[in-house]
Amino acid sequence: MQNKSMLMIPGPTPVPESVLLAMAQHPVGHRGQDFNQIVSEVSQNLKWLHQTKEDVLILTASGTGAMEAAIINFLSFGDSILIGNNGKFGERWVNTAHAFGLKVDEITAEWGKPLNPEIFKTKLVNDKDKKIKAVIVTHSETSTGVFNDLETINKYTKAHGKALIIVDAVTSLGTTDLPIDEWGLDVVASGSQKGYMIPPGLGFVSVSQKAWKVYQNSNLPKFYLDLGAYKKAINKNSFPFTPPVNLIYGLQIALKMMKAEGLTQMFTRHEKLARATRAGIRALGLDLLAADESASHAITTVSSSKIDITSICRIMEEKFDIVLAAGQDHMKGKIFRIGHLGFVCERDILTTITCLETTLQLLGDTNIVPGKAVSEALKFLL
Ligand SMILES: *Cc1c(COP(=O)(O)O)cnc(C)c1O
């Protein structure tokens, strides 16, 4: 049905009507006082959301732009770095670092498994000459729905003393507790179309004092994504270049909604939705790629040995207008992913589980006990 599409993918995520309406306004001049005032409010609220007293820089870019900024502003030609790679986004960090001539040591894990922090520890402890300039970790690996143990990897990085910790928090920011200042995370990158409840188009980067010192000596080429320019501008509630004014209108409203809900409540909501989804999926006789201990609160990844995954996604979309995300690369056709982050509530999970149940029945699954999956999911919601 037209205009009835329900996005259950890990970005872009659904956008509240109040945000859409705010974005429908006529843009104002980005150098005027009215806009400065909005930027001032947005900037304060972003610090609250990111749990940092440092500026959160806003880039006109998708999350990958924020990732690239995190590399080119804090590293130099030939620097050695450690990158955790257990999925599509870990791999993207590796590719970005290679594009800028960095020496990359990859710590890998099978897709669906979390990174082993002890491997980071060994490499960092053995680095007596302090050659490792940064450790890069994807907190919530969106391609597999796996959480990496950032807290432990960060502790080992802190013990090293020299290396910066750079974090991909694209699907963890706003969904999962990520106390940036308390943990001392140096550079944290995220993007608007995931947990922020606004459309794609903005990248966010927070930067620690330690990272700003390193920035002074970084010699990788940069211009549009030179974060020094964004820092200077944000101190005057402004931008170095023309920002997407209407997206900032949307962000202003979305941040107000988040503040009204509260950080702890937001994190609890996402965790509950994730648990309910997993319970429902299990009751449907489908398999979960990630183990309970390392399951992301933002994405649930589903596989099946008996039902064709591509057919499930096709029927969900054709019959129910529910969009699920397919697997990427070698996971194509083997998994589907349910995004439950941002503007997502209990009703959305119950609807998705119910429609999945019917879809499986339509595909000839005779083991389905009607209503069982929803009642299993409800145990985590009521
Ligand atoms: C979405 C995402 C990104 C950024 O992707 P863009 O398409 O550039 O927004 C980076 N890392 C993770 C973990 C993501 O989920």
From TrEMBL:
Q: Which species? A: cyanobacterium endosymbiont of Braarudosphaera bigelowii
UniProt keyword annotation of Nucleotide-binding present: no
Arranged from A to Z, the UniProt key words for this protein are: Pyridoxal phosphate
Taxonomy of the source species: Bacteria, Bacillati, Cyanobacteriota, Cyanophyceae, Oscillatoriophycideae
InterPro entries the record matches: Aminotrans_V_dom, Aminotrans_V_PyrdxlP_BS, PyrdxlP-dep_Trfase, PyrdxlP-dep_Trfase_major, PyrdxlP-dep_Trfase_small, SP_NH2Trfase/AEP_transaminase
This one is known as Soluble hydrogenase 42 kDa subunit
Query: What residues does the Aminotransferase class V domain cover?
Result: 12-329
User: PROSITE patterns per the record?
Assistant: AA_TRANSFER_CLASS_5
Q: Does the keyword Membrane apply?
A: no
